[in-house]
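Open question from group meeting: does this chain pack into something compact, or does most of it stay loose? Before anyone orders reagents, we agreed to write out a predicted structure and look at it together. Recording both the input and the output here so the notebook holds the full record.
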Amino acid sequence: MDTIKDLGNSINYAFSKLGLPLYDDETVKTFVGNGSVNFVMRSLGEAGKDKFDKVFELFTENYIKHCTENVKPYPGVLEFLEKNSGKCAVLTNKPIEQTLRILGKFNLEKHFTCILGGDNAPERKPGPAGVLKIIADSKWNLNETIMIGDDIPDIGAAQAAGIKVAVLLSGFGRAHEILELKPDYAFKDFAELAANPVFA
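Structure tokens returned:
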């Protein structure tokens, strides 16, 4: 899901309340990864770490209220889920409340065997415990499971769990850093992934 506009609006809301400079969406993308705590820390940088508690409070309050305003599926995602309904699960570092609201906006929960967020999974990505719980609860074969993600924590979680991983280079992660980790599959966008025979 493309959540960058709402993330950007919420961090800029927090910054505006404290008189801090605002960010454009492309800059906000560079802060994403490993959950909201790290997102806010990266947005503040070393010089602003003394403001973390207040910024995190303002950001979280605003994002909970507005996390579905501008969110949208990446092109091809809805069609892929319709075709593969019941064969997919969600593992995100985003809190489960926000995750369910975002999925609910598009009535997507019905497609997933399991939905785990950063606060109801056994551990956050890049730890493997969430991946392994999903596989066990869904009664999937480890050797036949592929994780689809767009950032370094996704690759780490999949590789630590011993499963294959496909990454989208159009997501939040930095392409050159992602490719250095040698994912099993790399696609420029979700449409290219969906057209690959492995995922057909």
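Observations to bring back to the group:
The radius of gyration is 17 Å.
The CA atoms of residues 6 and 67 lie 6 Å apart.
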